[in-house]
Amino acid sequence: MSRTAKLALAFVLAIGSLHSPLRADEFTVDPSHTSVIFGISHLGYSFTYGRFNKVSGEFTLDPAKPDAASFTLAIDAASIDTNDAKRDDHLRGPDFLNTGEFPVISFKSNKVVVEKKDDATIYVVSGELTMHGVTKPVTLNLQKLGEGPGPTGQGFHTGFNCQTKLNRSEWGMTKMVPHIGDEVAVTISLEGSRK
């Protein structure tokens, strides 16, 4: 191949690389920087708060096609923690989560719409939430909080925050309603590291 042909080929390859589509970024949920917290009414006198200590998942973000994003989460139902061992055992039992039969609470997205509100970027994530053996559609509004390198300058991280409300009776957990509230307030703070 002549020198001119080699230069022409190099030029074509360089131009082609400029127009190649950006790859979607795949992230693994960082469990040490991810929280799933809930609050529920107790007799209408107070709110009891708790969390799930074991959360995993993945999400994909495509800078070229933001609406092609996807999110999955898996929560170890038995990792529920309300700072009261006796109550936590009751919540794991058949009156509530029944973790022996339904050990995982899972969410999988099937549609994402990205919206801009003032300075905020909101991922409106529709999907299916499976809990207590029941699968129902839910929509989560994930506000993108930020992205960038980790504290040591290595890796790349992206984080979201979400607040929503669920009625536990819709997933077959009706025990002690209304003394223990039906509506559960849920906060998800989610951080992932790029693979």
From TrEMBL:
Keywords for this entry? Signal
* Domain Lipid/polyisoprenoid-binding YceI-like positions: 26-193
Q: Which residues form the signal peptide?
A: 1-24
Indicate yes or no for the key word Mitochondrion. Answer: no
Q: Which domain of life is it from?
A: Bacteria
**Which InterPro entries does the annotation name?**
Lipid/polyisoprenoid-bd_YceI, TTHA0802/YceI-like_sf
Gene3D superfamilies recorded: Lipid/polyisoprenoid-binding, YceI-like (2.40.128.110)
Instruction: Specify whether Cytoplasm is a keyword of the entry.
Output: no
Q: What is this protein called?
A: Lipid/polyisoprenoid-binding YceI-like domain-containing protein
| Taxonomic placement | Bacteria, Pseudomonadati, Planctomycetota, Planctomycetia, Pirellulales
